[in-house]
Records
---
Amino acid sequence: MNIFRLVGDLSHLLAIFVLLLKIWKSRSCAGVSGKSQILFALVFITRYLDLFTNFISVYNSLMKVIFIASTVATVYLMYIKFKATYDSNHDTFRIEFLVVPVGGLAFLVNHDFTPLEILWTFSIYLESVAILPQLFMISKTGEAETITSHYLFALGSYRALYLLNWIYRYYFEGYFDLIAVVAGCVQTILYCDFFYLYITKVMWGKKLSLPA
Amino acid sequence: RKTPEKKDEL
């Protein structure tokens, strides 16, 4: 464990709880893409099946359980409890256009052709693009609530911090996972446009709105 | 450079 990974994990955790708290406190999930949340739930469930097969540490297992539970809770709040506030007519990204190609790619490009490894690879690929429905929704409505942009900033920072972690691990531990690194780069690149808007607007107290 | 068999990251 190094500082980049720890801060990355905490940033990830913060993102999920910022979103949960926003929905819970405002009793509304307006402006949040339910499709991205379903994809994240799928990401965690397919990646953390190894909870049952190998034990790393209490920290590792605990975080996995928290990630799965909190994301499933977000999906529950959006699609059941606060369904009336869900902005479905702006959340029109077709997730099959992500899930199907990513599934195919996981079958073709993986470290090992075993069920758990293919699901892990699927999860890594899917995570890299899972935010697209959310970004698509913001581009459709042209704006995002400030709290939603804080969520996105924390979520995007997590993978960027993991990139630093992989550089660190490559030099100091000889660790290198090409699949994770390539997917992590793709994931971070997708946030670049948002990071720019966040830094130039939200950090200066302005609302995130897209130029017309 | 090797990919570890056990995945210790989240």
---
Amino acid sequence: MNIFRFAGDMTHLASVLVLLLKIHTIKSCAGISLKTQELYALVFATRYLDLFTDYISLYNTLMKLIFLGSSFSIVWYIRYHKIVRRSYDKDQDTFRHYFLVLPCLLLALLINEKFTFREVMWTFSLYLEAVAILPQLVLLQRTRNIDNLTGQYVFLLGAYRALYILNWIYRYFTEPHYVHWITWISGLVQTLLYADFFYYYFQSWKNNVKLELPA
Amino acid sequence: LEQPHMHDEL
């Protein structure tokens, strides 16, 4: 495992921890899109079907369990926790799941490396992960007041994706036959979705003002 | 020869 891959995983882990910190300690999920969180839970549930059939490493298994466990518990908190759910911006978080889920499922059925159940599910999870952040970005734009933890959460998620691209470039040059077009293109699309957010994030950081996305 | 499809990334 190279440094970019490891740093990417750690950034991903940090983003989840920041979100859990906000929900668990401050008992607030203001500005967090439940739609995005539900899509991530679906992403991990469909991607990690190999958890009990293929063993890669202890690190791999542990991380998979962490991402599965954290994504489902975040959804649980926002939906059912009696204090946390009060801060959920339900009226603003109106993105429709199936606008993203159905096209991704169709695309995975059409474009995949192998037409087996697990491989199609894996591919579906890649496509869905690429667009799962959209409800969250829409919500950020509607929320005039983006708190620090929410901004950091989205920033860390974007950084994780950018580091994965560096990881693929590194692996391409160091490993024989390392070519994964589906993973790369969906990963690139996913990272590009953060470009706008990154721009405003760095602007607010440079000028030391509160993060706000233009309508 | 077909490459084994290793899902070693997260």
